[in-house]
Q: What sequence folds into this?
């Protein structure tokens, strides 16, 4: 009886140590990556000097759960004329974070405004398609059809959109959540601390937030203003089509 008890406790202790070791190893292996269109180094993403020069240069196969990608805004501002399309997944304990350079450990020279410009023709400034556990924070999006587009053809979940400044978008929505209706393939998106402002006059749909086929959406502490005065334009601050469990809304 004592032997069984002793073996049981030894096994439990071994399992506990394995769990702790795994968690520590996971935390220790998270990495920082950098994007700066004006970088002059090796352009491998390992530092500001050696940063990737564009969003399309990001080697998403290197991005692991818990990693952070910092994007430079230069000293005052930097404009990226391309789409930021997220290409990796995080996990619940270690989401991927894509964030403006002003939040980096070494923000000097990189703390300016990060502006993603759609050039008037691109579908969206930021695109999240069938991804999980991703946080996006601190960017400006303008002149695209949609500022941010979160799409779930299969399943997109646990996406956080934080402190985004979205303005002068050219149709449809500042932020659009698009899932399969009645299947709700956009799940658990949080939109917080964002500013969304449409053109003062635009002949087209200029919703602030547009949702369809989405569930467990949280919207709080945002400023949403739709000043579009076109009498034929479609202008909703928030529009929902077949959504479920819209948990909480505060609009400032």
A:
């Amino acid at each position: 009886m004592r032997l069984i008890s002793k073996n049981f406790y030894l096994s439990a202790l071994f399992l506990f140590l394995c769990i702790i070791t795994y968690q520590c190893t996971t935390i220790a292996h998270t990495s920082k990556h950098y994007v700066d269109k004006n970088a002059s180094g090796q352009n491998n993403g390992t530092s500001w000097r050696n940063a990737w020069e564009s969003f399309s240069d990001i080697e998403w196969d290197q991005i692991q759960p818990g990693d952070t990608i910092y994007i430079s805004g230069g000293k005052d501002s930097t404009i990226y004329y391309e789409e930021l399309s997220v290409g990796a997944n995080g996990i619940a304990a270690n989401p991927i974070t894509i964030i403006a350079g002003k939040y980096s450990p070494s923000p000097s020279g990189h703390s300016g405004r990060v502006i993603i410009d759609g050039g008037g023709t691109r579908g969206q400034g930021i695109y999240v398609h069938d991804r999980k556990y991703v946080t996006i924070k601190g960017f400006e999006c303008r002149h695209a059809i949609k500022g941010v587009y979160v799409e779930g053809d299969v399943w997109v979940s646990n996406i956080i959109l934080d402190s985004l400044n979205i303005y002068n978008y050219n149709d449809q929505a500042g932020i659009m959540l698009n899932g399969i209706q009645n299947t709700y393939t956009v799940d658990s998106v949080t939109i917080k601390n964002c500013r969304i402002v449409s053109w003062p006059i635009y002949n087209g749909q200029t919703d602030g937030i547009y949702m369809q086929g989405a569930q467990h959406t949280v919207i709080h502490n945002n400023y949403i203003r739709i000043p579009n005065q076109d009498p034929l334009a479609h202008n909703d601050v928030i529009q929902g089509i077949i959504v479920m469990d819209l948990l909480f809304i505060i609009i400032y």
